[in-house]
Amino acid sequence: TRQQIETIEACFKEAIEKQDYLTYFIKAYTLSTRFFKELNKHLALYVLEYFDRTKYFSPNYRLVNCLIHIVTLLIHHPNLSQYRFQGACYRGMRITQHDLKQYKLDQHILNRSFLSATIDHPVAEMFAGEGEQSKMRYTSKDHRSLQYSCLCKYLIKQNSTAINIESLSTNPYEREILILPFSVFKVVNIKRNYLDDPKASISIEIELEECEDSNNNNNNNESESCPNILNRSSWNARPSRGHDNLKTFPVTHIVIRPINDSYSPRNQQDCIKQIIGFQHHHMYTLGWSDIAYNFIICNDNHDQQEIYQGRGWKYIGAHCRGIGIVGNYTSVKSMNIFKSLIQCGITKNAINKTFTLVGASEFRNIYEYYLNYFGNDTNFQYSNKASNEWVFC
User: Fold this and answer.
1) Would you tell me which CATH number, out of the four given (1.10.150.130, 2.160.10.10, 3.90.176.10, 1.10.10.10), belongs to the domain 82-214?
2) What is the pLDDT of residues 344-393, one digit of tens each?
3) pLDDT band (50, 70, 90) for residue 175
4) Helix H or strand E encompassing 8
5) Closest CA to 168 of 244, 85, 245, 86
6) Distance CA 391, CA 355 (A)
7) Considering the entire predicted model, what is its pTM?
8) CB 325 within 8 A of CB 259
9) Class of domain 229-383
10) Residue ranges per domain, the chain?
């Protein structure tokens, strides 16, 4: 309608005036208008013409150029990194047999448009039409289904493929993940539930796994020199309300502090519950923009350690720029995983080689313990430990 067009135009005008293309594009995209459908239809039809060198002239030149500009402004937006998503997300849809034939095991699929998914499984099931197979289209003669409920699971591996737009969307309850154009996925599994049970709540399930870029040397180098750091999606983090970039980079001070040192998680699932609780407390009780810590090391009762990303390498923590440690911080494994995280930061040029180890003033024990331990570590001599004096924040 004319009113919908004016609403979308207003979003783009505001984006230009405020130089914030990300916020207002997502607003326009998630409004209840036909904009997202028309945009994706034209991306799917025409965007590859931009890369076709055999075409010296395209009758759709202006349209193609406009589409490319929209995509480019979004994927190169300076604030995009704080919304990046990795992990599993779900897309619910209704498909025909013809649509289903496009999905074949081990086939690679190029995504040419924006693709809406969610980290909330029930939301995806709702969009798929869970339990509503009997209400979908079918042939009048033999009552054969023409349409099926379908749930797709996308495994996002790279950090430039998808963004979590929950905090920007006009429909935040959908917990939407937006998969960006030009990503490639491999079909790894197809389940036709309707063959075994015509009344199955979800008729078809498709699993797709992102194809990683073998030429991405940054990912390869990082994996060689860094421990496994579980990204924010692994613990179902809420999007941040905003971050302040570090004013000194690489950082010169690293803070260590125990978190709930009287409580020892039984397993890593316990760790995740704890971390979700930390973020909720920090954001909704204390009013901070995000979880306070840059990273969290969690040690469980089975002597297993994992590193979870909080604010990450580039952003200032709520109080001190630091690493929170859950569970037993005195074990050798705990020490070594802390050391590997620091070495990773040095390799990534995020931590100065002569950093100062800082203690949280109310937790002197862990500070003294780490100073003493690493004071005798011949492989950690590039650290000045505490610049010959104790430093607290």
Assistant:
1) 3.90.176.10
2) 888 888 888 777 777 666 666 666 777 777 766 666 654 444 444 444 44
3) very high
4) helix 2-18
5) 85
6) 12
7) 0.55
8) yes
9) alpha beta
10) 1-80, 82-214, 229-383
